């Protein structure tokens, strides 16, 4: 039972990690909390759904949904955020305007989805079973789809880790977010690099949406709760740290899973918010904020 | 085509405040010119406008005939113009090696990047043993060395140095200025050095300009400037 709970926790934690990662990628280079992230992710998931309707093949839809997610992220920056930051450079609203704009964008995306696909619950099916593995007579709640979620998330996190740590693009991304002016003076095209950050975030959110949705249903708001968990995970991790986002996501996922199993499903979110409040009050820079983990 | 850096009637306003009021000067290739001024004289503003970080109100700046104003800093780096900004232009969260790598990140000629990196480490051997450490573990002097080393990896022709002495101990300042002087001779660099520390700057400069409240009030050889009693009292502090 303990192992089952742990595995389920890792599976949902991996998704929270992806969502948290998407938030951190945007936050640390732009200082914008992107509330539109769940909208972007759900839009790319709808695109994935539409592709399965046409092709009946989840494995074709998945990479295309990820590419669309990246594209959506890039477009949000190019068409929306850049324009906004040029228009509103100073004044009391300058810092908060982009954040409010992301809330507006979230509403816009979700209404648009409602117009195109309707608000009914859809099934974005994966060929993998959502029924738990069976060992002898014992069926665990951990399914092949859960396993795929863990593998896909680990793969994405691994790829990001390698890109950030070992490539020039990763170095540019880190430099541009830590010290945009110095990065610029070193010859890095900060605007372009930031845009890549937005598309990475979009891609991470798209993976989260496309792998988790087959375990439940798809609707314009179906990723909202996931976003909240991702947000809590990102704050626990310090908002600035990619490693922190991943650890925060796993801690939260495993924590929720144990509470669900051993206490009650009705208190899981309550506990999430309590953790959020405690972190904000006791260690507002997060467990990984400033110092440890800022390298990755 | 006029060679070197030619700045004409450069003016920069911050809102209604005129920070630099129509400054003109020329730096010939290979020359080291020090712009001396106290806090608020507009010297940082001047250098930031030349490197594209802020937009001037009017005027022009040419490097070997090519206009600089209106270009982004990242484009100027590609023209061989490297600005080392005030207060140790390194990224503390990155390692020493990563900070160095930034200097060559945009360059296509990777074998020359490698060569330039080796040369830089040869010039500043103190960095060699610290490559894997984060830059915030370095002392102020070492950070300044790292910033200069990184700039060298870009193979600059024109160095814009904004107060390299800021926050450093006198002995370290001495070392940094000697290093700057050696480097510009070795690589034939043209240098615009903006400094509050007039004595150190004039020691290595070919020419000095005095910037006061946004206006160039005096120019001359370091000797001339050092002799001028009024300037000595106001800017040289002795």
Characterise this structure:
The complex is a heterodimer of chains A (296) and B (238). Chain A is an all-alpha fold. Chain A has a single domain (2-128, 139-282), classed as ABC transporter involved in vitamin B12 uptake, BtuC. Chain A has eleven helices and two strands, in the order ααααββααααααα. The two termini of chain A are 34 Å apart. In chain A, 52% of the residues are buried. Chain B has a domain at 5-88 and 157-236: P-loop containing nucleotide triphosphate hydrolases (Rossmann fold). In chain B, helix 3 runs parallel beside helix 5 (140-153). Chain B has a six-stranded mixed beta sheet, sandwiched between helices. A four-stranded antiparallel beta sheet of chain B has the order 2-1-4-5, with helices on one face. Chain B has 238 residues and is of the alpha/beta class. The chains are: A mainly alpha (296), B alpha/beta (238). Chains A and B meet through helix 6 and helix 7 of A and helix 2, strand 6 and helix 3 of B.
Helix/strand-derived category of chain B reads alpha/beta
**Residue ranges of chain A: pLDDT <50 for 5 or more in a row?**
291-296
Helix count of chain A, per DSSP?
A: 11
Q: Give the CA-CA distance, first to last residue of chain A.
A: 34 Å
CATH fold-level topology of the domain at 5-88 and 157-236 in chain B: Rossmann fold
Beta-strand residue fraction of chain A:
under 5%
Helix content of chain B: 25-40%
């Amino acid at each position: 039972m303990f192992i089952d709970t742990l595995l389920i926790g890792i599976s949902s934690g991996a998704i929270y990690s992806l969502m948290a990662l998407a938030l951190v990628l945007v936050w640390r280079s732009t200082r914008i909390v992107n509330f539109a992230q769940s909208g972007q992710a759900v839009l790319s998931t709808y695109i994935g759904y539409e592709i399965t309707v046409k092709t009946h093949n989840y494995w074709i839809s998945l990479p295309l949904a990820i590419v669309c997610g990246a594209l959506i992220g890039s477009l949000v920056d190019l068409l929306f955020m850049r324009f906004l930051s040029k228009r509103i450079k100073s004044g009391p609203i300058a810092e908060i305007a982009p954040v409010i704009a992301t809330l507006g964008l979230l509403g816009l995306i979700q209404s648009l989805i409602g117009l195109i696909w309707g608000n009914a619950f859809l099934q974005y099916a994966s060929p993998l079973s959502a029924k738990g593995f069976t060992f002898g007579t014992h069926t665990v709640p951990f399914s092949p789809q859960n396993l795929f979620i863990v593998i896909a998330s680990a793969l994405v996190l691994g790829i990001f880790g390698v890109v950030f740590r070992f490539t020039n693009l990763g170095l540019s991304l880190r430099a541009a977010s830590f010290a945009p002016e110095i990065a610029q003076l070193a010859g890095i095209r900060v605007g372009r690099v930031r845009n890549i950050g937005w598309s990475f975030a979009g891609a991470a959110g798209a993976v989260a949406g496309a792998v988790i949705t087959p375990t439940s249903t798809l609707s314009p708001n179906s990723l909202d709760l996931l976003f909240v968990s991702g947000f809590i995970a990102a704050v626990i991790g310090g908002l600035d740290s990619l490693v922190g986002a991943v650890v925060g996501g796993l801690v939260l996922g495993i924590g929720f899973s144990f509470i669900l199993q051993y206490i009650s499903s009705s208190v899981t979110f309550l506990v999430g918010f309590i953790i959020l409040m405690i972190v904000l009050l006791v260690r507002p820079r997060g467990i990984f904020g400033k110092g440890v983990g800022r390298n990755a | 085509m006029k060679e070197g850096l030619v700045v004409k009637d450069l003016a920069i306003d911050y809102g209604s405040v005129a920070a630099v009021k129509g400054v003109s000067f020329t730096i010939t290739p290979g020359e080291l010119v020090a712009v001396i001024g106290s806090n608020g004289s507009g010297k940082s503003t001047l250098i930031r406008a030349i490197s594209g970080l802020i937009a001037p109100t009017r005027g022009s700046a040419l490097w070997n005939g090519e206009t600089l104003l209106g270009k982004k800093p990242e484009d100027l780096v590609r023209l061989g113009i490297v600005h080392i900004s005030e207060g140790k232009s390194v990224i503390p969260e990155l390692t020493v090696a990563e900070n160095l790598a930034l200097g060559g990140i945009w360059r296509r000629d990777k074998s020359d990047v490698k060569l330039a990196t080796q040369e830089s480490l040869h010039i500043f051997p103190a960095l060699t043993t610290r490559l894997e450490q984060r830059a915030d573990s370095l002392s102020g002097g070492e950070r300044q060395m790292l910033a200069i080393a990184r700039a060298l990896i870009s193979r600059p022709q024109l160095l814009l140095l904004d107060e390299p002495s800021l926050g450093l101990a006198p002995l370290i300042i001495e070392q940094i200025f000697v290093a700057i002087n050696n480097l510009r001779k070795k690589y034939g660099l043209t240098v615009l050095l903006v400094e509050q520390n007039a004595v150190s700057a004039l020691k290595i400069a070919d020419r000095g300009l005095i910037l006061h409240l946004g206006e160039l009030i005096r120019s001359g050889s370091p000797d001339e400037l050092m002799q001028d009693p009024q300037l000595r009292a106001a800017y040289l502090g002795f």
